[in-house]
UniProtKB/TrEMBL annotation:
UniProt protein name: ABC transporter ATP-binding protein
Entry-linked SMART domains: AAA (SM00382)
Domain ABC transporter, first and last residues per copy: 8-233
Keyword Transport part of the UniProt annotation: yes
Species this protein is from: Lentilactobacillus rapi
InterPro entries assigned: AAA+_ATPase (IPR003593), ABC_transporter-like_ATP-bd (IPR003439), ABC_transporter-like_CS (IPR017871), ABC_Transporter_VariousFunc (IPR051782), P-loop_NTPase (IPR027417)
């Protein structure tokens, strides 16, 4: 690996297509051995950002550096230490899956190894079939097998599990975990929030061409609310007027069983009030990535998560 603290350093990135501003202000950082989750709805700018990082398109402003090198000017050098899998893979129709994997490896300066054979078995890919006969999921497998077979410093996945069944999604997650454990860096753009939540150290949320929140899920949880289900000996009427309590729903006439959400900074006060009412049962659920995501996109019901 090239000796740089940051694998990926994107600052104030902008990209316009004519009068349309696809990217307005994108800031991303990725460290060695880190998995960065990049999420946002259709049209938010995820794929455009990735294309700039890969040197496929030139930015209109700001900077994008990979291994400390300019993503546009030094893309050829950068690609020698990078593997990329797009969300929809197009393959040479008359080649077999096996021939394609070997060709992709050869183009990356890599070779077919026992690791490649193991990946083919794990993903259960029939490499003797021609690409034109493959389903979308099998085309994804070809690209993923080639990518995971390479020994590079940075792996870029743009909706990589699109078309895969749940079992193969799990294999993908395991392989990303292995990359992380071996000190590799991963940029993962995904619409599957549970996938991002399981694998990523850091999460960046993009909306309308701007990265609006970046950090670990733990550091961002203060922005969302914990869910609480509680049963007490005495009525919980005090909750009705407590600050930070929302969506209070009493489950019985005695008002001793309730479900509600509470702001993270008010949990201490609420727990003190619950304890005074003699807690019989208590279940708290911390906010999820989906909760955080919906905080930003609850008004965009006409947009689908993903790109």
């Amino acid at each position: 690996m090239m000796n740089h603290t940051l694998v990926l350093d994107v600052k104030g990135l902008k990209k316009s297509f004519g009068k349309f501003e696809a990217l307005k202000d994108v800031n991303l950082t990725l460290h060695p051995g880190e998995v960065l989750g990049f999420i946002g709805p259709n049209g938010a700018g995820k794929s455009t950002t990735i294309r700039v990082i890969l040197g496929l398109i030139k930015s209109s402003g700001g900077s994008a550096k990979v291994f400390g090198k300019d993503a546009w000017k030094e893309s050829v050098t950068i690609h020698k230490d990078l593997a990329y899998v797009p969300g929809d893979v197009y393959l040479w129709p008359n080649l077999t899956g096996g021939q394609t994997i070997d060709l992709l490896l050869h183009m990356s300066g890599q070779t077919h190894t026992g690791r490649t054979d193991d990946l083919i078995k794990e993903f259960k890919l029939d490499t003797s079939k021609k690409n034109r006969t493959y389903s979308k999921g099998n085309r994804q497998k070809v690209a993923l097998i080639a990518a995971f077979s390479t020994d590079v410093s940075l792996y870029v996945f743009d909706e990589p599990t699109s078309g895969l069944d749940p079992l193969n999604e799990l294999i993908f997650q395991q392989k990303v975990k292995q990359l992380k454990e071996s000190g590799k860096s991963v940029l993962l753009s995904s619409h599957i929030l549970s996938e991002v939540e399981k694998m990523c150290d850091t999460i960046a949320i993009i909306r309308e061409g701007k990265v609006i929140e970046t950090g670990s899920l733990e550091s961002m949880q203060h922005l969302t609310r914990n869910s609480v289900a509680v049963t007490t000996s005495e009525p919980l009427v005090k909750l009705q007027n407590m600050p930070g309590v929302y969506q209070l729903d009493f489950k019985n006439d005695q008002k001793t069983t309730a479900e509600f959400s509470v702001d993270s900074d008010q949990i201490g006060n609420v727990m003190a009030a619950l304890s005074a009412n003699k807690i019989l049962q208590l279940k708290t659920t911390p906010p999820t990535l989906e909760d955080l995501f919906l905080r930003y996109y609850h008004s965009d019901n006409d947009q689908k998560v993903g790109e």
